Amino acid sequence: MAVKRDAQATRLRILEAATAEFARHGIAGARIDRIAQASGSNKAMIYAYYHSKDQLFDAVFDALIVRNMNDVPVDVHDLAEYAARLFDQFQKYPEVFRIGAWDALERGSVGMKIEAVVEANRHKVAEIRRAQEKDLLSATFPPAILLDLVIALTQIRPLLMDGSGQQTDHAQRRQAIKDAVNALLRH
Protein backbone atom coordinates (compact mmCIF):
# COMPACT_ATOMS: atom_id res chain seq x y z
CA MET A 1 0.00 0.00 0.00
CA ALA A 2 1.48 3.34 -1.09
CA VAL A 3 1.70 6.20 1.40
CA LYS A 4 -0.19 9.27 0.23
CA ARG A 5 1.83 12.46 0.52
CA ASP A 6 0.25 15.59 1.87
CA ALA A 7 2.00 18.41 0.02
CA GLN A 8 0.39 21.14 2.13
CA ALA A 9 1.47 19.50 5.40
CA THR A 10 4.98 19.01 4.01
CA ARG A 11 5.23 22.67 2.99
CA LEU A 12 4.03 23.72 6.43
CA ARG A 13 6.64 21.55 8.16
CA ILE A 14 9.33 22.97 5.87
CA LEU A 15 8.23 26.56 6.61
CA GLU A 16 8.21 25.91 10.37
CA ALA A 17 11.69 24.36 10.27
CA ALA A 18 12.97 27.11 7.97
CA THR A 19 11.56 29.81 10.26
CA ALA A 20 13.49 28.42 13.22
CA GLU A 21 16.66 27.95 11.14
CA PHE A 22 16.60 31.43 9.58
CA ALA A 23 15.74 33.10 12.90
CA ARG A 24 18.67 31.35 14.57
CA HIS A 25 21.32 31.56 11.83
CA GLY A 26 20.25 34.20 9.30
CA ILE A 27 20.19 33.58 5.59
CA ALA A 28 23.89 32.99 5.04
CA GLY A 29 24.23 30.75 8.09
CA ALA A 30 21.07 28.71 7.52
CA ARG A 31 21.56 25.24 6.12
CA ILE A 32 19.04 23.49 3.90
CA ASP A 33 20.19 20.09 5.20
CA ARG A 34 19.24 21.13 8.77
CA ILE A 35 15.86 22.40 7.53
CA ALA A 36 15.31 19.09 5.71
CA GLN A 37 16.18 17.08 8.79
CA ALA A 38 14.02 19.20 11.11
CA SER A 39 11.05 19.06 8.72
CA GLY A 40 11.30 15.34 7.97
CA SER A 41 11.82 16.02 4.29
CA ASN A 42 14.85 16.10 2.03
CA LYS A 43 16.81 18.81 0.24
CA ALA A 44 15.44 17.83 -3.18
CA MET A 45 11.87 18.27 -1.92
CA ILE A 46 12.66 21.67 -0.44
CA TYR A 47 14.22 22.84 -3.70
CA ALA A 48 11.27 21.43 -5.66
CA TYR A 49 8.91 23.60 -3.61
CA TYR A 50 11.06 26.72 -3.16
CA HIS A 51 13.83 26.55 -5.83
CA SER A 52 16.44 28.39 -3.71
CA LYS A 53 17.31 29.33 -0.15
CA ASP A 54 16.36 32.94 -0.92
CA GLN A 55 12.91 31.89 -2.16
CA LEU A 56 12.45 29.79 0.97
CA PHE A 57 13.42 32.81 3.09
CA ASP A 58 10.90 34.91 1.12
CA ALA A 59 8.18 32.33 1.85
CA VAL A 60 9.03 32.43 5.57
CA PHE A 61 9.09 36.23 5.57
CA ASP A 62 5.75 36.42 3.73
CA ALA A 63 4.08 33.98 6.11
CA LEU A 64 5.25 35.87 9.19
CA ILE A 65 4.23 39.26 7.83
CA VAL A 66 0.78 38.04 6.76
CA ARG A 67 0.21 36.48 10.19
CA ASN A 68 1.33 39.68 11.91
CA MET A 69 -0.90 41.87 9.74
CA ASN A 70 -3.91 39.64 10.40
CA ASP A 71 -3.25 39.26 14.12
CA VAL A 72 -2.50 42.94 14.81
CA PRO A 73 -4.43 45.32 12.57
CA VAL A 74 -3.72 49.02 12.97
CA ASP A 75 -6.13 50.98 15.17
CA VAL A 76 -5.81 54.72 14.57
CA HIS A 77 -8.33 55.42 17.32
CA ASP A 78 -5.90 53.95 19.84
CA LEU A 79 -2.37 53.87 18.41
CA ALA A 80 -0.97 53.32 21.89
CA GLU A 81 -2.94 50.09 22.31
CA TYR A 82 -2.02 49.08 18.73
CA ALA A 83 1.64 49.49 19.67
CA ALA A 84 1.12 47.48 22.86
CA ARG A 85 -0.57 44.66 20.92
CA LEU A 86 2.26 44.71 18.38
CA PHE A 87 4.76 44.50 21.25
CA ASP A 88 2.82 41.52 22.63
CA GLN A 89 2.98 39.88 19.20
CA PHE A 90 6.76 40.37 18.99
CA GLN A 91 7.12 38.83 22.45
CA LYS A 92 4.93 35.88 21.49
CA TYR A 93 6.71 35.37 18.16
CA PRO A 94 10.29 36.66 18.59
CA GLU A 95 11.24 35.08 15.26
CA VAL A 96 9.33 37.89 13.49
CA PHE A 97 11.78 40.49 14.76
CA ARG A 98 14.79 38.24 14.11
CA ILE A 99 13.72 37.37 10.55
CA GLY A 100 13.13 41.08 9.88
CA ALA A 101 16.57 41.91 11.27
CA TRP A 102 18.25 39.26 9.10
CA ASP A 103 16.37 40.61 6.08
CA ALA A 104 17.70 44.10 6.83
CA LEU A 105 21.25 42.96 7.59
CA GLU A 106 21.73 40.49 4.77
CA ARG A 107 19.44 41.73 2.02
CA GLY A 108 18.98 45.45 2.54
CA SER A 109 15.32 44.96 3.61
CA VAL A 110 14.24 43.31 0.36
CA GLY A 111 11.45 41.56 2.26
CA MET A 112 9.98 44.89 3.30
CA LYS A 113 9.51 45.72 -0.38
CA ILE A 114 7.26 42.75 -1.20
CA GLU A 115 3.75 43.69 -2.30
CA ALA A 116 2.01 42.33 0.83
CA VAL A 117 4.20 44.45 3.11
CA VAL A 118 4.04 47.53 0.90
CA GLU A 119 0.24 47.29 0.69
CA ALA A 120 -0.14 46.75 4.44
CA ASN A 121 2.05 49.77 5.19
CA ARG A 122 0.27 51.85 2.55
CA HIS A 123 -3.03 51.00 4.25
CA LYS A 124 -1.68 51.89 7.72
CA VAL A 125 -0.22 55.19 6.51
CA ALA A 126 -3.50 56.06 4.74
CA GLU A 127 -5.48 55.30 7.93
CA ILE A 128 -3.15 57.51 9.97
CA ARG A 129 -3.35 60.29 7.36
CA ARG A 130 -7.17 60.21 7.42
CA ALA A 131 -7.18 60.32 11.22
CA GLN A 132 -4.78 63.28 11.16
CA GLU A 133 -6.95 65.09 8.60
CA LYS A 134 -9.96 64.60 10.89
CA ASP A 135 -7.83 65.88 13.79
CA LEU A 136 -8.17 62.53 15.60
CA LEU A 137 -4.36 62.18 15.67
CA SER A 138 -1.60 64.71 16.05
CA ALA A 139 -0.11 65.84 12.75
CA THR A 140 3.22 66.69 14.37
CA PHE A 141 4.81 63.87 12.37
CA PRO A 142 3.99 62.87 8.80
CA PRO A 143 1.93 59.64 8.73
CA ALA A 144 4.74 57.35 7.52
CA ILE A 145 7.18 58.71 10.12
CA LEU A 146 4.59 58.36 12.86
CA LEU A 147 4.03 54.72 11.88
CA ASP A 148 7.80 54.10 11.86
CA LEU A 149 8.14 55.66 15.33
CA VAL A 150 5.26 53.62 16.75
CA ILE A 151 6.70 50.39 15.35
CA ALA A 152 10.20 51.27 16.59
CA LEU A 153 8.86 51.73 20.12
CA THR A 154 7.47 48.19 20.09
CA GLN A 155 10.98 46.81 19.80
CA ILE A 156 12.46 48.09 23.05
CA ARG A 157 15.02 45.82 24.62
CA PRO A 158 14.11 43.58 27.54
CA LEU A 159 17.41 44.26 29.37
CA LEU A 160 18.52 47.59 30.68
CA MET A 161 21.16 49.33 28.59
CA ASP A 162 23.44 49.74 31.62
CA GLY A 163 24.32 46.05 31.43
CA SER A 164 22.98 45.34 34.89
CA GLY A 165 20.94 42.45 33.61
CA GLN A 166 17.88 43.65 35.49
CA GLN A 167 14.85 42.83 33.45
CA THR A 168 11.83 45.03 33.29
CA ASP A 169 8.71 42.97 33.33
CA HIS A 170 6.44 42.67 30.34
CA ALA A 171 3.68 44.80 31.85
CA GLN A 172 6.12 47.66 32.60
CA ARG A 173 7.54 47.65 29.09
CA ARG A 174 4.06 47.40 27.57
CA GLN A 175 2.88 50.40 29.61
CA ALA A 176 6.04 52.36 28.76
CA ILE A 177 5.36 51.79 25.05
CA LYS A 178 1.79 53.03 25.42
CA ASP A 179 2.97 56.08 27.36
CA ALA A 180 5.63 56.85 24.74
CA VAL A 181 3.14 56.57 21.87
CA ASN A 182 0.71 58.82 23.73
CA ALA A 183 3.54 61.34 24.24
CA LEU A 184 4.20 61.29 20.50
CA LEU A 185 0.56 62.07 19.85
CA ARG A 186 0.23 65.07 22.13
CA HIS A 187 -0.54 68.24 20.18
From TrEMBL:
<dbReference type="InterPro" id="IPR009057">
    <property type="entry name" value="Homeodomain-like_sf"/>
</dbReference>
<dbReference type="InterPro" id="IPR001647">
    <property type="entry name" value="HTH_TetR"/>
</dbReference>
<dbReference type="Pfam" id="PF00440">
    <property type="entry name" value="TetR_N"/>
</dbReference>
<feature type="DNA-binding region" description="H-T-H motif">
    <location>
        <begin position="31"/>
        <end position="50"/>
    </location>
</feature>
<dbReference type="Pfam" id="PF17926">
    <property type="entry name" value="TetR_C_21"/>
</dbReference>
<dbReference type="InterPro" id="IPR041467">
    <property type="entry name" value="Sco4008_C"/>
</dbReference>
<keyword id="KW-0238">DNA-binding</keyword>
<dbReference type="InterPro" id="IPR036271">
    <property type="entry name" value="Tet_transcr_reg_TetR-rel_C_sf"/>
</dbReference>
<feature type="domain" description="HTH tetR-type">
    <location>
        <begin position="8"/>
        <end position="68"/>
    </location>
</feature>
<dbReference type="InterPro" id="IPR050109">
    <property type="entry name" value="HTH-type_TetR-like_transc_reg"/>
</dbReference>
<protein>
    <submittedName>
        <fullName>TetR family transcriptional regulator</fullName>
    </submittedName>
</protein>
